[in-house]
Specification:
The N terminus is likely disordered. Helices cover 76% and strands 0% of the residues. With 245 residues, it is an all-alpha fold.
Length: 245
């Protein structure tokens, strides 16, 4: 049976070989450069590919994605719905909320760095420096002083006199630490009302002698009802977006 299938596949592929002469081909190789511009172009392509490979990590480290996705995960866990909403929905919502929150920063980067570079008004290094300034301003507006001082002390670097003396290697982990702190603080506040519902339901079941019935089965509909009645998604998204103000 396998021989017949292989023979049939070969018969189908052979006629395609007659038309393969006019098709374009892609080749990859390493050769000697005859022009310095070729080396520069190859290095630019390598840098672009490297940036694209680490772009998700850059998005996680330098934007509000960390706070948003953690708070959304806390809400799902507090309600006890497990896989509703799914991970794809949580991550997708967190990404679009991140783009919404970071829109002023991205617009500033586009006006100050990207468009002048595309118009060949500034060099690559100047464009990179101009793009970093809005990101640094955003991170400085969200980072905590204690977290920033902690990273400065750990790095054993001289005490900075102003923001320009703080490097990105110090600012980014301090910013992420502040985001984790703030996300867990918001998660704790979100857990409290749902915990109260669980405790009330558990107390009622114990008083009725129904100790073998898991309280989560009874409390889940009430938690969903409470979340819907208070318009929980609007309150949650509004609080998340306003927390970056």
């Amino acid at each position: 049976m396998r021989l017949k299938f292989a023979f049939l596949l070969l018969c189908l592929l052979l006629p395609l070989g007659a038309y393969a002469e006019g098709l374009p081909t892609i080749t990859l190789g390493i050769g000697e450069a005859t022009d310095p511009g070729e080396v520069s172009t190859a290095l630019q392509i390598l840098v672009v590919l490297t940036i694209l490979s680490v772009a998700p990590a850059i998005l996680l480290m330098t934007t509000g994605f960390t706070r948003i996705v953690i708070v959304l995960s806390f809400v799902r866990q507090a309600m006890g719905t497990q896989s509703a909403p799914s991970n794809q929905i949580v991550i997708g919502l967190a990404l679009f909320l991140t783009f919404f929150v970071m829109a002023p920063v991205f617009n500033q980067i586009n006006e100050q760095a990207l468009q002048p570079y595309l118009d060949e008004e500034i060099s690559q290094m100047q464009a990179l420096e101009a793009a970093l300034q809005p990101m640094r301003q955003f991170m400085f507006s969200q980072v905590g002083e204690k977290d920033l001082q902690l990273l400065v002390d750990i790095s054993k670097s001289p005490q900075p006199e102003n923001q320009t003396d703080i490097s990105m290697l110090t600012l980014i982990p301090a910013f992420m630490l502040s985001e984790l702190k703030r996300a867990f603080q918001m998660g704790f506040l979100l857990f409290v009302p749902f915990l109260m519902v669980d405790m009330i339901v558990a107390s009622i079941l114990m008083s009725m002698g129904m100790m073998m019935l898991p309280p989560i089965i009874i409390s889940l509909p009430f938690k969903i009802l409470l979340f819907v009645l208070v318009d929980g998604w609007s309150l949650l998204i509004g609080s998340l977006v306003q927390s970056f103000g």
